[in-house]
Every structure is written in structure tokens, then in C-alpha cells.
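Pasting as-is:
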Amino acid sequence: MSLKITEWAVEDRPREKLIQNGTASLSDAELLAILISSGTKDKSAVDLGRELLGVVNNNLNSLGKLTISDLKKLHGIGPARAVTIAAAMELGRRRKLAEVPYIPQIKCSKDVADIFQPILSDLAHEEFWILFLNRSNKVINRMKLSQGGISGTVTDVRIVMKKAIEYLASGIIVCHNHPSGNLNPSESDNKITQKIKEAGNLMDIQLLDHLIISEKDYYSFADNGVL
């Protein structure tokens, strides 16, 4: 039977260890233990944290994708703990989003990926975004057009063009993620790209690129000669 955290030496307890030595001194399981707080009767919070990490193969990105229902399936994680963990993961994602670099001018596909990777890379659902540019390829604005499920999202070309006109954009770049990690464009990806391109040509608004984002990489239609 594991010792409860309250039975550990003070300097080994996660909270005290964090205060004394900083956040970097704690393992992932110990950080989770602080969120989980007290353990169950038969295991410590650190043991519970290790068990939770084991479910996602020690991958924190995968942990961030778990729903409240997923978390509650683990013995010892009730609604309150599940909500606490989910909130902590979301705060981490929002911090990453807040650190999205400001890129005043788009010069290549990597500039676009640097903007959208922090936003889209670890989502468990698809989102479709638009980047609006002026004639010098300087960023005017960006917006999320739609949000869908695991395998798709609805994209309305009319709204894409309407927003581009509102921002007086000369060019646009669209971007969406594939939660599966597969970067190959689907048939619907190719169709919507051509529709947006054709609509843009009619209105003198150029579709410069379409990026598909995964957790670690991206696919550029322009780089691959599809546009």
C-alpha cells in the first residue's frame, strides 16, 4: 500500500517541493498530484497521477485531448478532479495561444504555420481559420470560421468572401487541422480549396495558400503545387 502524501517527508511532498525548488523540479506525475490533491484510500495522488499518465502513454498533449467523461473513467478521478485537470490543460493551451508570434508579413508557409500551430495542433476537433492579408502580404486580421467534429468541419465560401470584403483584404490564407495527424488532403479539402480559389478570382481576392495542421507538422497546398 502506498503512503499518503501527508505521510511523506515534508521536503518530498509535491507542494512543498514546488515552493522550495520551483515547478521544473517536479515530475509530470507530481504536478498532476497537486491538481488531484488528496489520494484515494489505497493509493497516493502521485500514484494516481502516474496511472493517469499511463493511460495516455505519458503524453501530455494526449492528456489535454481527454474529455471530462474520459477522465472520470479512471478509478479515483471523480467529477471535481476531472474538471480541475481539464481546466489546467485548457489554461496551458491558452497560454500557448497567447504566445503566438506576431508576424507582420507572410513570406512563406512556415510563417503561417507558426501562427496556427499553437492554436490548432493539439485540438481533438477540427477548426477552420482564415488569415486576411493586404497587397503587401501583411496580416490584417485572423478569424475562426467554423468548428466541427473529429473528421470534419463545415466551410461556407460565401462567409469567407464576405469577411474578406469587410476587411478589404487583397489576399487570404485558409487553414484547418487534422486531429488524426494525417496530413494528406481529403477530397473535401481539395474541393473547398478550389471553390474558395474560384470565388476569390471573381472578386479579385487571391487565395495564397491552404494549410493543414497536425500536432507536429503541416501541409501547404501552395508548396505542393496544388494552388
